[in-house]
Amino acid sequence: MSNFVGSFILFPNTLDQKVHWLAHWNYERQEYMLPGTSKKPFETFQHCLVSEIEKTFELVPFDDFVLSEEPLAHLAFSEKILPSQVSDHFIIELFEFQSLNEQAQQVLERDLRNRWVSEQEIEEGACIDGFPISGLFRSLFHKANLANRLS
Prior knowledge:
The chain has five helices and nine strands. It is α+β, with helices and mostly antiparallel strands.
C-alpha cells in the first residue's frame, strides 16, 4: 500500500474537433501520465505543481504560464491500480492552465516526452502506437468528470 498526495495539471487541446489532453512520459513508471508531482509537507498543492512545471519544462510562472487559483477538483480516494496490488491511497488536486503564452506552448509541443492523448486512448490505457497510459490517468479522468467539464 502506498500513499500519494500531489497535484496534476490539466491542459486540454482540441485536435480534429476532439479534446485531447497533455500527457507526459514518466520514466520511472514507463507510462504516460498527466504532468504533476507529489507534494512536500510544507507546500501547497498549487506550489508543488508550479515548481514541477518550472523544473520539468523550464517554464517561468507568471511570464510563461498562470495556473487556475482554485483546483478544478480535489479528490481523495483509495484504489487498486493493478488487480494484484493492495489499495493505494490518493489525495490529489487537479489544476488547469489559466493562461499559457505562445512560446511556452511551443516548448510543450517540442518536448518529445509530451503527447496529446484522446479520451479513447485514456480509456484503452495505451496510445495509438502502443505506449502505455497510466491507469491513474483514467481514474482521474472519471473521478473529476473531465469528459463533461471541458469538452
